[in-house]
Amino acid sequence: MRNGVNVTALAATINAVRQQPKLAQFKFRARNQWDTGGHNVATVHDFYGTCQDMEHKEPFTMHADEPAVLLGEDQGANPVEFVLAGLSGCMTTTLAYHSASRGLNIESIESEFEGDIDLQGLFDLDPNVRPGYREIRVKFRVKGDADEATIQELLRKSPVYDTLANPVKIKIEVEKV
Amino acid sequence: MRNGVNVTALAATINAVRQQPKLAQFKFRARNQWDTGGHNVATVHDFYGTCQDMEHKEPFTMHADEPAVLLGEDQGANPVEFVLAGLSGCMTTTLAYHSASRGLNIESIESEFEGDIDLQGLFDLDPNVRPGYREIRVKFRVKGDADEATIQELLRKSPVYDTLANPVKIKIEVEKV
Description:
alpha+beta
């Protein structure tokens, strides 16, 4: 074990994927049920990977809401904050796993994330303002063997970092019921 | 109230922003503390908006982990699933708020999200494979006044939809401690 990662199993996983690339095809899923106003509940349970349908041990539910200033009742983080949380988790795990794979011991990882949103975009007040994040700033404080340049390199391998930094194709289907 | 949204307050908010665009500048934040392996904990509490520092009623903590097949202990959804949860919450809230603003009553919103990730990207096995989501498919089932074309239009105003569909500038700072 290194950094809490079973490096033997990690090497075996990477080798299995190298032999059979179809094992690497994963599909992740979420469902969402609107309650009212800014409150809704997402559930994550099943996914697909290594050529089979799988499930988490238990379903994970996540309440999203808006704070009072954005006309909600503050029953959960808001959706754009969930994205920062996902980015933070992904960059952290990517650093821990890749460091383990390279034989680098990590003692601690702490990080802070801040992103800018101009609500003129969401409210359709200025066509030149995008509704989403304009910029996200990330600070990592790391204790361990990896040097700064290596940490910078490894953090950029994060799937959520790539998902945000580069465009993703999104297909939307709507059914009236 | 329409769709659980105070439409008088919503119109007042939009009008205030139209008069003073700096009220629309929001900064959302998250912190993350690594535990071990694929387990880490994100916290969302303070944010900035309407020209002042604010806080949620309480800090929201989110445990991320990986399932056993990805060498974790499955103590929470994984980071790429958090992104789908954020997308689901944001598209749902955007539909509820914009429909309310247009005088359209919505009775129910349910949705499903599925995204494709090829782990050859994360594992550095193929430089042509991106680590993040290649494609995300979204299905909405909506009961209410809005017609299908309007729903399609409103869902695309979502800040998280825009954040994923288009590139975001991300700056990374690393400190060795």
